[in-house]
């Protein structure tokens, strides 16, 4: 209704709707004898497709009328379904009600009003679930009233509704009645032709029915009807179909697998039932149907007991998935395939964990190879879909399986996975013109966050699969390439990953018996240069990572690492001071960091730390390499006495790397390391230098520093 300026009689459609709802409610609650007119004929409004948006108003009135009947008649409350045109059976009424509560905030909070009506009308539907509905419905109502649509967790609600429906069917416990309920659901697909969210709920309910009964005739009828009525181009309906078929498979795995193969064959012939689907979806190639079938295989695998489904995973499940995937270039098919691989791997992992599935997934390496291929192909593409995150999640599930990956396989998958994510720009869509074909509705920020999270989850699974400090260090060594990248975004994301997997490892090993952290030195040696990174965010992440690593070594809570320390040596204090780019300020903080590490580093980790830190002198960022040299000298100055045996190795390492050091300040700092070592072990240092190749490749630097009497004078400030 168009607004007319200055028209005092104008009423908006929304206002008119509200007035009509109020009139119906007033008629129900205040006008005498209206009960005989409205009850039970108003029930038919529930199954009127055009009145779906008015279900809240209808149920408000029905609740008043049904409550009166329930109070008067108690469990003898009945409905004369024969007198109604649409609600012709208790099953048809129940089918409608259990679907519309699935999306409770639609159409003016319909969930609350439908649940209140259900509580009142229970005996007129079936006596069996009266007790459970009287107990559970108030709980569901209270749950809805404690939320609003802004902080709503739809998945959690779906789980509650699924449990409620399952318990309802268990209390009815009559197969003929439940089959009739299932047929009522099948007959109501037309009510949700343009409502994919509601159709999704209907499909879940159908799956619960089929799982409950043993009627194979109904199973076949239901599956045919499901595939015929699902819009396979709609992701929500596709998922609902797959979930329903998966629930069916939990009771009839072999029958459902045969059915899916027949669907695929019928699809190839482009005949029979699926000829109608082409007309329904308008998709002559049926690519979206392929995506649905593939997703069904995944949900069958995850829902069926692993002992039963395990022999069928390689054949026919993975074989059929591979056939459908290889014959399609549709992105929906690829996405379904990735989701299915994850579900299959999760099912196998669950069986291995419970010792119910002793066989390994024979095709795991082949599947990981496919994940690498997909991720590699995505690396050169803009982030416009969730393919990366799906492939990473599938990879995470695959690497969790027994046996653990070999080192080479681990390195290969990490390098490709990280390479496909770390280099993604923060704001790609903001930089690219619209004419490049990017969907303007795409939520790039959300997609980027989910992709980075998926990568970190994948790395976490790799770390926790072999919970050893050697494996932890090995993975961080692979990441080190990006830790020192010239791209600030890559360094920041790499440090986020580092902190994430360190925290995950620390949390997972809290209850383990104490094991010495035998790679602490190498890990701290990789992290220290990042504490003076050009990017402040990277510095903070590096400090937090050191905090977690030291806490693991000391087997105390992270928040207690700096407890009882001098304030100037607290990591939290140093982290707060590291925001300045002033060289003198950075020098002071870095020197304090060196003192902190001196106090925390066990003797057996001292040389590994210094040896790794020497590599930091070649860091491509002069600020970082300079910081590494300051920490190197601070540690040598304070704990050099403990390094007698390693003097030749340290001197050789520093000499070998000097030619690669680019920053002049770092070169001078590296040479000061000789002096600081000589202050503790003069003879050993001289012998090592004299035994070095002649002429010394560092002679120029020695001359430049001759005024400091490098080896013979007293200590020089590190």
Automatic annotation (TrEMBL):
Name by which UniProt lists this protein: Uncharacterized protein
Native source organism of the sequence: Larinioides sclopetarius
Coiled-coil region: none
Domain called Maestro-like HEAT-repeats: residue spans: 490-697
GO cellular component: cytoplasm
One Pfam family here: HEAT_Maestro
InterPro entries given in the database record: ARM-like, ARM-type_fold, HEAT_MROH2B-like, Maestro-like_HEAT, Maestro_heat-like_prot
Domain annotation MROH2B-like HEAT-repeats: ranges: 5-463
